[in-house]
Predict the structure.
Amino acid sequence: MIVIFENHGYWSVRKGMPFVWAVAQRYAHANNFFAVHQDGSLPNYIALVGGGMWLDHNTARADDAPVRGKPTVFGQAIRAGRTAKTYAEAMSGTCDLSKHGMYKVHHNPWAYFVAERSLCRRYDVSYERHFANDVRRGALPNLSLVVPHNCDNAHEPCSLGAADRWFRTHMQRVWSGPDWRSGRLLVVQTWDEDNRGDEHNRILTAFIHPSLRHQVVSKRLDLYSLSKLASQITGTAPLYHARTAPPIVGPDGLRLTPLPARVAPAPSRPVPR
């Protein structure tokens, strides 16, 4: 599960989001992780799910700049017999192609990939209507992207504190569910880009899994590395630039250990002292 927020760099998050930073310290985080495009959300989202920067600007409608003839990590997973979903907060239907209210389509990248529109219409769903139920039933997909709406994601003028509280509620829900308790769920919390170049596009990325304890990954990584990880988790081939991206999991990276069933109770004290 990848949870993505908006427009804050590494040090801003450490200072302004005490819950996120505490969870990152308790489990694992990367301190040398970068977005791949400066000053524009959509290219980073497209790079994450599609392995390439097929667009270089934001749009208010997905059909204003459709990505043609390219697959996504979601589509790859589904074609390989796995499951995948996007959970987009404040989206009124499924796979909404235009922005409305607090929903911004340029934060929902699957909507832009024309060849996978039929899959998008089935599996790109409302966070409010579907997420809590999927958690309760132990039915979270093999791969998911969680997209908070345009305030809960820390986008200005909303605060880091508001996003921090949203993420606390989100994680409390996740920790209560059977997918977490089974030991099979990895949550990755990341960002689309930094504060308009203030931090050279370095972003905090946290890895939350019951096998992780106080790990820090210092090798240089980026959103293509996260795209590669998504493909590895679903047993599919990494896409385009993700093929050559540095891997997140490995001897000099994240040391992630699969756990046997039912060994991962929800943490009673998620904030270390």
